[in-house]
Write a structure and sequence with these properties.
single chain, about 500 residues, alpha/beta, Rossmann fold, UDP-N-acetylmuramoyl-L-alanine:D-glutamate ligase, 10-stranded mixed β-sheet, 17 strands, about 40% helix
């Protein structure tokens, strides 16, 4: 579960109102920060602790006291007049009996360990003045940084850098991670993220959460398709993938291959006549059928055994794409719209949304950043929104599941549920990777997996395939590494 800074504030208040001592929470948080320093930097005999206003600074005072008592030489710097602290932070300051130096006097030596307790997850304004200068000095000294909650300057809500930001080796956060730990550019600044249990009951976290999770099989494994003794190919779903014309078939073939490996009982490529010889030359287990125009497609849709569709990879942008999507909108079956299928509606996104606006979502959109900007230009341009915010609003507007791709892929549903995918390796960024993802989603929805769960599962399985393939992969390496859905389902069952 991921908590926004606003939700975390509500959790903190609820914990204190329930009778939990706020200062005790601060002491446990500070102890977790100190423990990280002692575990990962045992040879360090000097640490600089940078404290700001509020409870984040209070965590720093506690960590400083514990590290001093462990034998470390501690120098503590404050960004404000220490006498201005209030509440639990003031109490933490009173328990620190060493000197308090002005942050403006900070001059870190190269490689010197830094505890960053200047600002926490709730930062919503640019970092300026003496704090910005101090962060610059730490960055220039290439000092290892342990951040209390998040690196100072990183928004806990959006992951954006507010002016300038620390780059941490470790971030110790409390009760639950924040969106900023996983959304770019925060993702690249947080280092190893550790969630410290500071004694807040899980029931309070659940009561104030906002339907946002780290993508994990526990969320969707129960919905994965599984092969039973009565299974046959038609019961396992029939996925249809539309191909582009001659010399534009590779993307569709990648999608189809990924769909077959993801467990669809049948996969058919729907190809224009001009491309059929080219496509047929590359297929064995995947079937091939001619679909040149609207009439061909309408005739095909009479076969209700076709249970899911992928349109877009290598298809081409234009009237044909829009006409085919219009036909598919009438059949009541799920459609994964990717690549050219998305771009085909750039001039009139609302016409796409209108086709799928009624009833439960059955459209899955898989845009990368550029494609997202074509369908949702206003959301993309609004820098006050996080990637999660944009994905959620887009999903609601389109009545679709949105798989908003990137190093920080977000999957969102019109009902507000969202996950952030966190485990995909950077080498997944290669040509054809997205085509494979579309095929994985398509195969799962063709097997009657609920569309939101299918999008989340596909993003996760896509990352696992990339890990299995290893650095240097090309898109052709991904399908063999896709984990069988039934295996994931069984593994999750054993872990519960």
């Amino acid at each position: 579960m991921i908590l926004s800074p606003r939700a975390m504030t509500r959790v903190d208040h609820a914990a204190i109102q329930s009778g939990i001592d706020g200062y005790n929470l601060m002491v446990i948080a500070g102890a977790a920060i100190a423990a990280c320093a002692l575990e990962h930097y045992p040879a360090t005999d000097k640490v600089l602790v940078l404290c700001g206003p509020g409870n984040n600074g209070g965590d720093g005072y506690v960590a400083a006291r514990i590290l001093h008592s462990s034998g470390m030489a501690v120098r503590l710097y404050s960004s404000i007049d220490p006498d201005a602290l209030a509440g639990d932070a003031a109490r933490a300051r009173s328990d620190w009996h060493g000197p308090i130096l002005d942050l403006e006097d900070l001059e870190p030596n190269r490689g010197q360990l830094i505890i960053d307790a200047l600002f926490g997850a709730g930062l919503d304004r640019p970092v300026l003045g003496s704090v910005a200068k101090a962060i610059g000095k730490v960055r220039e000294a290439e000092s290892p940084v342990i951040a209390a909650d998040l690196p100072s300057g990183v928004s806990g809500r959006t992951g954006a850098v507010e002016g300038v930001a620390m780059k941490a080796a470790h971030s110790i956060t409390f009760a639950a991670p924040k969106p900023g730990h996983f959304l770019l550019p925060g993702l690249e600044l947080c280092g190893k993220v550790t969630v410290a249990d500071i004694g807040i009951p899980h029931r309070l976290i659940e009561a104030h959460a906002e339907a946002l999770w780290v993508n994990d099989p526990a969320l969707w494994a129960d919905d994965l398709p599984a092969i039973g003794s009565a299974s046959h190919k038609y019961k396992r779903g029939h996925l249809a993938v539309f191909s582009g014309g001659a010399c534009q078939t590779g993307a569709a073939r990648l999608s189809a291959s990924a769909g077959l490996k993801t467990g669809a009982g049948l996969v058919t490529i729907l190809s224009p006549a001009s491309a059929m010889p080219e496509v047929a030359n590359h297929l064995t287990a995947i079937m091939l059928r001619k679909v040149d125009n609207d009439a061909d497609l309408r005739a095909l849709l009479a076969d209700e055994r076709l249970s899911g569709f992928v349109l877009g990879p290598g298809f081409g942008v234009g009237d044909k794409a829009r006409a085919f999507v219009s036909c598919l909108a009438t059949c009541g079956r799920p459609l994964v719209l990717d690549a050219d299928g998305i771009s085909a509606f750039s001039d009139d996104p609302q016409s796409l949304f209108g086709l799928f606006g009624d009833g439960p979502p059955r459209l899955v959109l898989t845009p990368h950043e550029g494609e997202f900007s074509r369908l949702f230009p206003d959301l993309h341009a609004d820098k006050t929104l996080s990637k999660v915010d944009r994905a959620r609003q887009a999903a609601l507007r389109a009545n679709a599941i949105v798989v908003y791709k990137g190093a920080d892929t977000v999957v969102a549903s019109p009902d507000g549920r969202a996950v952030i995918n966190t485990h995909a390796p950077p080498w997944l960024a290669t040509a054809g990777s997205g085509d494979c993802l579309a095929g994985i989603v398509g195969a799962l929805v063709a097997q009657n997996m609920p569309v939101f769960e299918a999008g989340a599962a596909a993003a996760y399985m896509h990352g696992m395939a990339a890990i299995a393939a290893g650095e240097g992969l090309t898109a052709e390496d991904l399908p063999p590494g896709i984990p069988p859905p039934g295996l994931l389902k069984r593994q999750q069952g054993r872990e519960q």
